[in-house]
Amino acid sequence: MVYPDRDLRFNYSQFNERVEDLAKGLLALGLKKGDHIGIWARNVPDWLTFLFATSKIGAVLVTVNTSYRSHELAYVVKQSDMKALAIIDGFRNVDYVQTVYDIVPELKTQQRGNLTSQEFPELNHVIYIGQEKHRGMYNTRELLLLGKHESDAELAKIKATNTADDVVNMQYTSGTTGFPKGVMLTHKNILNNGYYVGEKQKFTDQDRLCLPVPLFHCFGIVLGVLAALSHEATLVMLEVFDPLLVLAAVQKEKCTALYGVPTMFIAELNHPMFDMFDLSSLRTGIMAGSPCPT
Prior knowledge:
Number of domains: 2
Shape: globular
Low-confidence stretches: none
Number of strands: 15
Order of helices and strands: EEHEHEHEEEHEEHHEEHEHEHEHE
Largest sheet: 7 strands, mixed
C-alpha cells in the first residue's frame, strides 16, 4: 500500500502487523464478533487498517458515506445497531467531531469506554482516527498501543471461528426509493466479486492500481481493494480525488491500472498539465458510475 503524496509505504507483512495490533486493541475495548463498527472517513491510511482489523475479529464494518450530514449519520448509527464509530476530523465543510458531539452529547460528560446514550443505546465507543485527543474518544494510536500489549491467543481463537459466510461489511443504499437500507455482505460475497474483477483485468503481483475513488463504496472496497488483495497487487492510494495528484501518482509509481468515475477521467484528461505526465505504464482500469463517450 502506497500513499505517494506522503511517501507512506507498507508491504503486506508490515500492514498485517498493524492490522493485528488494531484488532487486539478493538478486542481490549470489549468489541467482539458480530458487533457493528462504523467508519466515517476519507481514504486515510488507517481506513484500510479498520477494514481488515474488524474482519479479523468477526465484526461487521459499516461504511458511512463521507457526504452525510448529522441527520443521515444519526439514522445509520441507530439503524445499523452500531457499537462503535471511527471518525476523522471532517470532510469538505462538515466537521465530523462536532457533528458526533451534537448527536451524542453524552460523549463530553461520560468516561470513555462507558458511553451510555439515550438516543443510541447500542453505541459504546467513538474512536478518532489520528493522533489528536478528543473528549470521550479513544484514538488509533492508543488502540494500537493497547493491542501491542494484548495476547495473540484471544485473536487467534476468534479468527478460527470466522467463516466465509459470516457478514463482514454493511453498505447503505442511496435511499432513492425510501430510507437507505443496510446491505449485509459476506466475506465470500465481496472477496469473490473482487477476485473476478481482478481476473478480468488480468491482475498479477506486478500490477499497481491507482485508487482515487472513495473506500466507503463497493467501487473502492470491493472492485479496488479486494481485487488488488486477491492478486497480491499494490494499492496506490489517494486520500481525496485531485486530478493533478492522480496524474502524478500514476507517473511516480508507474501504475498499471487506474479507476474512476467519468467526471474523474474527464478532469484528468482535460487538465492543463496532462501532457507533462508519462502515463505509458497504464494498461487497464475501470470506469464506473455512468456511461462515458469514447
